[in-house]
Amino acid sequence: MTVKHPREHGRESRDLEINPIFSREPLRVPRYAMPHGEMEPDTAYQLVHDELMLDGNARQNLATFVSTWAEPEAQRLMAECAEKNMIDKDEYPQTAELETRCVHMLARLWHAQNPHRAVGCSTTGSSEAAMLGGLALKRRWQHRRRAEGKPADRPNLVMGINVQICWEKFADYFEVEPRYVPMEGDSYHLTPERAAELCDENTIGVVAVLGSTFDGSYEPVAGICAALDDLQSRTGIDVPVHVDGASGAMIAPFVDPDLEWDFRLPRVASINTSGHKFGLVMPGVGWALWRDEEALPDDLVFHVNYLGGDMPTFALNFSRPGAQVVAQYYNFLRLGFDGYRRVQQTCRDVATRLARRIGELDAFELITDGSETPVFAFRIRDGVRNFSVFDVSAALRERGWLVPAYTFPENRTDLAVLRIVVRNGFSHDLADLLMEDIRRVLTRLEKQGEPHRDADDAGGFAHGAETKNARTPGRD
Questions:
Q1: Domains and CATH numbers, the chain
Q2: pLDDT averaged over the chain?
Q3: 3-class DSSP state for residue 276?
């Protein structure tokens, strides 16, 4: 995000005239320059605290996938570990040990054939973890091409245009051609046939998304793997799969145990997830795991000697907080498999019930129903012409609800939707209150003669559902 500098004149450049502790003499504090002198800590606190009251209520933010609630014990542990740097593994060996335990737990959860051979690490979030997965795919492909005496300068990556924006960043930053499969008709994500069609000898991998940010749906990972198996049998082209499980990788193991999407499929080389989404940790922590050592080229791994032993590290970031890793281990320990299953099933139950009630309204039509990830999207029904999804989103903001409205990507830009993410802490009771407000705003919006807002009024409020431009395969 680009930070805009304030204008040198006008309202934005005024100093703050404040009386932060209401019985004290007023102070004058510059907005965009460091003050010349000190102030009392409680004065500084009051000033910052009062400005932050203008932020939205995080619990009512139904746009974000990121956790907005945690148990007091988890928050206490994070406070106790606030000063711990995850990269300082020799200074904080027990924090490093908890990271290793989490990797092994995830390897078992995702059915690694030999969990002790699975390789993984924590990251600052699922975006960094996804980029690490992409880097490993690219490096493996380069090694193989060079060993065969073939050029390794035109790698491409196949994925649906519904992927999170981090994959567009990966392709740009690391010089990989993105091959997006566009949305067509009622197909809103990657299909096995289209994935295989775009693959060639320069394809480093296919990204399959378990929990699309656009509508919450799972992509058919097993079907994609089967299509790539068939491609290899016909052409000899061997393309691995990376599963972007930012959301679904912490949902499916608990409530869809029979769904094959993980390391049970031999073609799945790596998986990323977000610990601070449905992993139930406050931001920010993610996880990247590889099937085994062969899936992560050793020349990407830096080996750190700590306590006389070898600690391999592979991450884009260096210093980062250890508190969230500790909180992840706390959640795994505190909830166990049954606890996570209960939490995720409750989220799904709230989502499907809320989606069903919204779908019963004359104004809306469901795109998805929350029965995969507890996320669903809905549109304005055909024939309703006096308001738009952007009107609904703006009206709900008046009551504090943040419900994003956005258009779908290329080939389906005609489709504008609202999306609701149900996270731990969004209860049936809160869902009932939301329904009351939806009915209330519809009563008012139905009296409009025409829509008052469109996509230009939505701002940067898509939370992962940003539009990308599809590119023709092979085009520079």
A1: 11-42 (no CATH), 75-332 (3.40.640.10)
A2: 90
A3: coil
